[in-house]
Structures are given as structure tokens and as C-alpha cells.
Design goal:
- By secondary structure, the chain is of the alpha/beta class.
- It has a single domain, classed as Alpha/beta knot, CATH 3.40.1280.
- Helices cover about 40% and strands about 15% of the residues.
- It has nine helices and seven strands, in the order ααβαβαβαβββαβααα.
- The protein has a seven-stranded parallel β-sheet with strand order 3-2-1-6-4-7-5, with helices on both faces.
Length: about 230
């Protein structure tokens, strides 16, 4: 759709929202980022899977990449509280083993792949540099990340712990990492915000997800804009 027509469509559909709702969407868009993203490999615990989406949305991430190898990623609505409605979720499940396809795509799009797992070459979370776009990789609690994910990673990060237990569960790990790194990112001079075109695309999606009969309204609008 032509960008100018898209803006007109957004203006038209915005009329079916309260001004407060529209202002909130625009404010949240200004805090959204794709500079950081989360990759979840073969997560099957529904409660944890749903809590991760909620954390990603609350900390301003826009994209979540979900790799389904042996397990299907299932969301518990009572835990996610609608977070998936506001996120861009990309699933990789066309092959028997989908990890390479996901990580190769992210690397091609300029992301550094950082595995959240203890490793001989790891660094502490507070020492992780954010000098380029970063994808954080998380695996299951029992098996962790696959050998291929670890092989393809550009770096490794661990969360410092002071107790006997060797790890947090995945939903807690993601929340800790995103809180620390999103706070750090927003205090830097990095260009972490979405582009204007991305904001418009998301705003249109969010408005359509928030109003009744969006397809009917869009169809009605497009009838007055032939060729759009």
C-alpha cells in the first residue's frame, strides 16, 4: 500500500478509537525496538513460554523468534495477558530442525547472536556490549540450547548468581536480561528506535486488532481509494 494512502487509512481507522487509546499506542511505539530481539529454541513449557512473551512486550521488544524443532510453542492466555497481540512473532517450523534457518536469517539482517548460557567464553550480563543489533538466544531449562545454536553463536552471556542453584527458569532469565539490556540500550546513543515506516505498519496492525470489524472498515475505505 502506498505510504500516503496508509497514513490516510490509519487516520480513518483511528476515528474508531478513543483519543486516549490512540495516544497510548503512539507513545508505546516510540519506546519499541528491534535493536534487541529474543530467540526461543524449542520451548515447550506453556507457562514459561507465555511469561516470556509478556516480558518481551513489557520491556519494549517488538520481535520474538520462535524455533519449533521437537516442540510446539503453546501460549497460555491467562499468563500472556494478550501480549502476543502487540508483538511480531516469527515462527520457524517448516523443517525437522529449524535452528540454522532462524539464526542465518538474523545474522543476514545484521544481528549478533548471543547465547544466554554458561560457556568458557561467556561474559557477565552487565559487560555485554550493545554496539550492534543483538539477538538473545534461550533454550529449554532441561536441555538448554542445541549444539548447533551454541556453534553458531557469536558470543555468550550469563547472569551472575550468588546462590547454590545453577540457573533461573527461562522466563525469569529473559526478564532479567531484558530489564538490564533495555535499560542500558535506552541510555546509549545507539539508534534503537523503529523507523517511521515500521511505526506506521505496527500502528495500523494495532488499531485493526483493537476495533470491531476491521476488515469491513478497511474494505469500505479502499473502495474510495481505487488502485491503492
Amino acid at each position: 500500500m502506498d505510504p500516503a494512502v496508509k497514513k490516510e487509512l490509519i487516520h480513518y481507522l483511528s476515528g474508531f478509537l478513543t483519543p486516549h487509546r490512540l495516544e497510548k499506542m503512539q507513545s508505546i511505539l516510540n519506546s519499541r525496538t528491534r535493536y534487541l530481539t529474543v530467540v526461543l529454541e524449542d520451548i515447550y513449557q506453556s507457562h514459561n513460554a507465555s511469561a516470556v512473551l509478556r516480558s518481551c512486550e513489557c520491556f519494549g521488544m517488538q520481535d520474538v523468534h520462535i524455533i519449533e524443532n521437537q516442540n510446539t510453542y503453546e501460549v497460555n492466555p491467562e499468563v500472556a495477558l494478550g501480549a502476543s497481540k502487540w508483538l511480531t512473532i516469527q515462527k520457524y517450523n517448516r523443517k525437522v530442525f529449524n535452528t540454522p534457518a532462524c539464526l542465518e536469517k538474523l545474522r543476514a539482517n545484521g544481528y549478533r547472536l548471543v547465547a544466554a548460557t554458561p560457556h568458557k567464553d561467556d561474559c557477565l550480563l552487565e559487560d555485554l556490549a550493545l554496539d550492534q543489533k543483538t539477538a538473545l538466544l534461550f533454550g529449554t531449562e532441561m536441555q538448554g540450547l542445541s549444539a548447533e545454536a551454541i556453534r553458531m553463536a557469536d558470543g555468550f552471556v550469563k547472569i551472575p548468581m550468588q546462590g547454590f542453584t545453577e540457573s533461573f527458569n527461562i522466563s525469569v532469565s529473559v526478564a532479567i536480561c531484558l530489564y538490564h539490556l533495555s535499560t542500558k540500550l535506552r541510555s546509549t546513543a545507539q539508534n534503537w528506535q523503529l523507523f517511521e515506516a515500521e511505526k506506521n505498519d505496527l500502528l495500523l496492525d494495532w488499531i485493526k486488532a483493537s476495533i470491531k470489524n476491521p476488515d469491513l472498515l478497511v474494505s469500505r475505505f479502499l473502495k474510495t481509494h481505487p488502485g491503492s
